[in-house]
Design goal:
CATH architecture of the largest domain: 3-Layer(aba) Sandwich
Helix content: 10-25%
Oligomer: single chain
Largest sheet: 5 strands, parallel
Number of strands: 9
CATH topology of the largest domain: Rossmann fold
CATH class of the largest domain: Alpha Beta
Number of helices: 7
Shape: globular
């Protein structure tokens, strides 16, 4: 009995001592102190708990997935496996380390708990914004990871031309964007400003001392000058380039994007497919122009640039030139992937507008501008809105209502003077939008 009383008094003494020391009999660690949700929440940097893993207060014994690297941001840094923004995590946007923060926006941003949210997006072992199997750096190309979808190993962290919301911050191997993702502050559709401003994902560092080819792809508004006096603007583009860039004009009159890719005779003038699109007769055969560009020796080479613009003939009602909205975007996507497969760099352009006057004011009269911008946003390709820019040029020259006998050939096509001025507008847009080709301009 004496022994039992001694044990009881000892137990009471121990509990009193613990109470006096401020201890708790609850064995669960704190969840909202230095290792809880407060420091590792939406804007934290290390998973569910900032400094000690999922459940510890400050690095305790029950360390979770990121152990003592929680607050630092994942396995080896603030952005996951290799630093701050994807596999090589060095660029990102001008205001962040992988987009607009330490993991971008979109999949790598605060909305999905990227920088330390409940799923340890920017700090956990499988971090969404840069971890080992990161959603923002893996197969969906969100943070430009090593297996990033359109861009693969070229990705170095950022986004470009409006892919935020589609795949996070990286897309086709993006190298950053001045405002996150094309539009203002990385808008979900690349913005209305023609795909945003650069830098854009390209095949590597631009070296203006390297000899390159600038391939120009389009229709009669771009093709070489004809004996009749009709002249496409691409025929006059060489004069705006420095000595290390040479134009190869692959524009063909009368072509839609579909007939340019597959060849005019290779697209049926009568048969349509299940979607009502003009049917390609032989999908294994490309046009002479594309075949030339794909030649291993004489075709596109790493570091080249390719400008692609269609939309005039594509608006035709019947085959074989008719192209629907979805197919138009799909064909631009095909061009972007084909160009990049050769290590070259795509640029998309909307069509030049024609002479379309409302009193003394020229107004745009071309279709497929939204589709071109959407394709540019989806594929991280810079887009020059030449429809809008050409209208501004016409109005500055006061071409309405009477036109110009030296500028216009027929109100749609140009003479040499008009072609030269439109080519100058394209060159200026390349500079204004920070596209890498600007390094080769005079």
């Amino acid at each position: 009995m004496k022994t039992c009383l001694t044990q009881v008094f000892a137990g009471i003494f121990a509990l009193t001592a613990l109470s006096l020391l401020g201890c708790s009999s609850d064995s669960s660690p704190a969840s909202a102190t230095s290792g809880g949700a407060t420091s590792g929440g939406v804007n934290g940097a290390g998973g569910k708990s900032a400094t000690g893993g999922e459940t510890t207060s400050s690095g305790g014994t029950s360390v979770a997935t990121s152990a003592t690297g929680g607050a630092a941001g994942g396995i080896t840094g603030s952005g996951g496996a290799l630093g701050k923004g994807g596999t090589s995590g060095t660029d990102g946007s001008a205001s962040g380390t992988g987009g607009r923060g330490s993991g971008g926006s979109g999949t790598g941003g605060s909305t999905s708990g990227a920088e330390g949210g409940t799923s340890a997006a920017a700090g956990g072992t499988s971090a969404a914004a840069g971890g080992t199997s990161a959603a923002a750096g893996g197969t969906s190309a969100a943070a430009g990871g090593s297996s990033a979808a359109p861009g693969g190993a070229r990705g170095t962290g950022g986004s470009m031309a409006g892919t935020t919301g589609r795949g996070g911050m990286g897309g086709a191997g993006g190298r950053g964007s001045s405002s996150g993702s094309g539009g203002t502050s990385g808008s979900t559709d690349g913005g209305a400003g023609g795909g945003g401003t650069g830098p854009f994902p390209d095949a590597g560092p631009v070296d203006p001392n390297k000899k390159i080819t600038v391939w120009l792809v389009g229709d009669s508004t771009m093709q070489n000058c004809q004996g009749s006096g009709q002249c496409g603007w691409a025929a006059e583009f060489q004069q705006y380039l420095g000595p290390n860039a040479t134009v190869s004009n692959q524009a063909r009159g009368g072509r839609s994007i579909q007939t340019w890719i597959w060849g005019d005779p290779n697209v049926s003038k009568t048969a349509t497919d299940a979607n009502g699109e003009c049917q390609v007769i032989d999908t294994s055969t490309y046009s002479d122009n594309l075949t030339t560009m794909l030649d291993p020796t004489k075709g596109m080479q790493p570091g080249d640039w390719v400008y692609v613009a269609f939309g005039i003939n594509d608006a035709s009602a019947g085959c074989n030139r008719h192209v629907g909205s979805a197919l138009f975007q799909s064909d631009l996507d095909f061009m972007a992937k084909t160009i990049r497969s050769k290590g070259a760099n795509p640029i998309f352009g909307t069509s030049t507008s024609g002479q379309s006057c409302q009193g003394s004011t020229n107004v745009p009269n071309r279709a497929f501008g939204p589709e071109t911008k959407a394709a540019g946003a989806a594929d991280d390709v810079p887009v020059i809105d030449l429809t809008t820019l050409s209208v501004a040029l016409y109005n500055s020259l006061k071409l309405c209502p009477s036109g110009s006998s030296t500028f216009w050939f027929d109100g749609t096509h140009f003479k040499t003077d008009g072609a030269t001025q439109v080519a100058g507008v394209v060159a200026q847009a390349i500079k204004d939008q920070g596209i890498g080709l600007a390094a080769y301009l005079k």
